[in-house]
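S., here's the first fold you wanted:
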Amino acid sequence: MDYNYKGLRLVYSGTQLTEASAAELSQEYNVVNVDDESKLEAYLNTQSLFSTPDVIMIEVKDEERVFSIVEKIKNNPLTSGLIIVLLGNAPDVKLRQRAIKAKIHDLYFAPYQMEDLKDRLNFLIKFKLIKPNIEQLSVIKKERAEYKIPTPKRVFDVVSSGGILLVLSPVLLIIAALIRLDSKGPVIYKSKRVGTGYKIFDFYKFRSMKAGADKELKNLSALNQYSDDGSGANAFVKIKNDPRVTKLGNFLRNSSLDELPQLFNVLKGDMSLVGNRPLPLYEAEMLTSNEWSMRFLGPSGLTGLWQISKRGKGEMSDTERKKLDNFYARNYSVWFDIKIILGTFPALFQKEKV
């Protein structure tokens, strides 16, 4: 289905928008170019309930000034629902981290493709602008519509995860004790993950790496299992023969016992038994196009299609993994889930250390 966003107002703050790019955006949106940050602030101060823009794109030149404007936008009930996209001149890790913390909808670094940017805007408009601006002015704050696990699937998740936790409770206690004896650090590794509908939650695993392993990740990119698909950057990260893994951690990972604490995530409703794996923030932020965002529209889960189809195979590429995720998001069902669960058991013990 094609969507027409011509009636939506997109405000562009910056000086680098070319005539060709402006014309391309104008084909789908009502584009208003306000030049620099000072003119942007002046423009926003003149807006009313019926003229407030829907999307704003800001070139980041004066970082402090831009984030000050963003804070004002988010604190104003008239503009709090505005979609914000930042455009940086060059890749900047600190800027990316700051954008995530400020809950910016997306951040692009030059050079970027206008088609990719338009795809991302279309996705954000379709799934973020669920309610009209007038509803955002209500004194009573209402939750936006969110994906809910279908009742039969949720009942199956609760009964299954609760039963498994009860039966395996002695095993969980033994593993916890062994981790304590094996190396320093907490028993449970907790990290932020992005699940269905870009929902962020605390994700649980038995710790299988030495303390401070996250800080070493950037130095291990050459060992990434997922081959480059031509984009120059991998969305997924999985390290072959990861040197950060402890001796006990190797056994826990190869037997998938490190995943058992995720049953508590299933019990809480953060995820399902079967679905697309919830991703770390640094992975999720790279899946920006509408094509790959499809994987976030289905349930996230403990096991899924890619785990049983190509798990542990070094030749799996970013594109293959994303296609499997998208296929599941479009076609999941109770019977499909049962088939995946049955296929998971042979995949639990794998030869490759990944």
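And the second, which I think is the more interesting of the pair:
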Amino acid sequence: MSIKPILIHPDPRLKKVCDAVPDVSDELRKLADDMLDTMYDAPGIGLAAPQVGVLQRVIVMDCVKDDAEPPRPMVMFNPEVLLSSDDTSVYEEGCLSIPEQYAEVTRPAEVRVKWLDRDGNEKEQDFEGLWATCVQHEIDHLNGKLFIDYLSPMKRQMMTRKSAKMKREQARA
């Protein structure tokens, strides 16, 4: 188990488009396991590789929030949205790279996603509700996009300033 440091916005690596994973290796499976440990430790419901400084198309997520339910960790290599519903939903989103800040974001309510699993097998699944929001949020990270990019310029600027201040304070500690 290895908890990785999470990059805090603004960091230029969070705005880069990530490279596709050529094949699922032991090294990438270890990265995914470390990302899950990091996500659960944070605690969060999703994490993308660029948030831990790795510019590859890898995300992890687990949207089970009820302690009575068993966790359902998901690991996705090269995830891609194939279809999006016309219906939308609004969730108050946050991000481990933009700590303690939240805003309502409108996204498609349902998506179909294709990815490679831990064994390199192609998977396809429909997601709805929080799972749909989370998978879209994490795939956005792989494309250099943050949830604050959906907000008005003024709100985005305010959140970026607050995040930058928090980052400076952490650096001094």
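Why I say that: The longest strand covers residues 74-84. The chain has one domain: 12-172.

Talk tomorrow,
H.
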